[in-house]
């Protein structure tokens, strides 16, 4: 199975003034994330891409557009997960049809399945496609949490190749210690990215890499190159940004930060709202 690299950006979806996808801005953003921020892969239509408010048509059009624009310069991971197994299978098949390199499948939210239900959900989606699958465990958003034991059970399925883990460093450690060869653990939390790598994570699925990706890439390369002190210093310098971008609901802050840098991102769709004046002042202070 192909690799997704060490630094994966969970890409925003740029909107225009009418709240529709801004395709020109999306094109420019892709170039910027690859060339300036050094992303190895892009997650398209994940939570940071405001997937809850994108229609299926918009998601599939995004997958196709990004695949064509990237043209092999990095890997494309399509966010096709939901709390409806049949719906996720449909989106996964569409992502494969338009040329995505893999899919990201979030733990089912709201209906709160047990561990066996989660296993069967992910198993069914994985077996419906030949695409590599990255699991996504984010209990702060889904209420339910995929255990390390169930993750390791799923890792035995041929095309389930990675997990984006947001539960705890303890869980990252448990999975990394017992995972089969080739299965990768990614931190889904920028602030825990380097600590997670220290206990066995392979890389980071990042929001902050929209604005400090090149610095994060240097941090990762310092760590993997045998210079943990240098990596720690970079982590410490970036830590205020890692934490600050989550002072309001994601992706509100990172979209505003991109606009500060002159990168067209637009605002967010309801029920999210633009930052307050106080929040905007704080985000500006980070840069």
TrEMBL record:
It is an enzyme of class 4 (lyase). GO terms for molecular function: 4-hydroxy-tetrahydrodipicolinate synthase activity. The record marks 47, 110 as: Part of a proton relay during catalysis. SUPFAM superfamilies: Aldolase. The active site is at 136 (proton donor/acceptor), 164 (schiff-base intermediate with substrate). Pyruvate binds at residues 48, 205. It is found in: Cytoplasm. Keywords: Amino-acid biosynthesis, Cytoplasm, Diaminopimelate biosynthesis, Lyase, Lysine biosynthesis, Schiff base. Pathway: Amino-acid biosynthesis; L-lysine biosynthesis via DAP pathway; (S)-tetrahydrodipicolinate from L-aspartate: step 3/4. Its EC number is 4.3.3.7. It catalyses: L-aspartate 4-semialdehyde + pyruvate = (2S,4S)-4-hydroxy-2,3,4,5-tetrahydrodipicolinate + H2O + H(+). Its main location: cytoplasm. Homotetramer; dimer of dimers. Catalyzes the condensation of (S)-aspartate-beta-semialdehyde [(S)-ASA] and pyruvate to 4-hydroxy-tetrahydrodipicolinate (HTPA). Belongs to the DapA family. This is 4-hydroxy-tetrahydrodipicolinate synthase. The lineage of its organism: Bacteria, Bacillati, Bacillota, Bacilli, Bacillales. The gene is dapA.
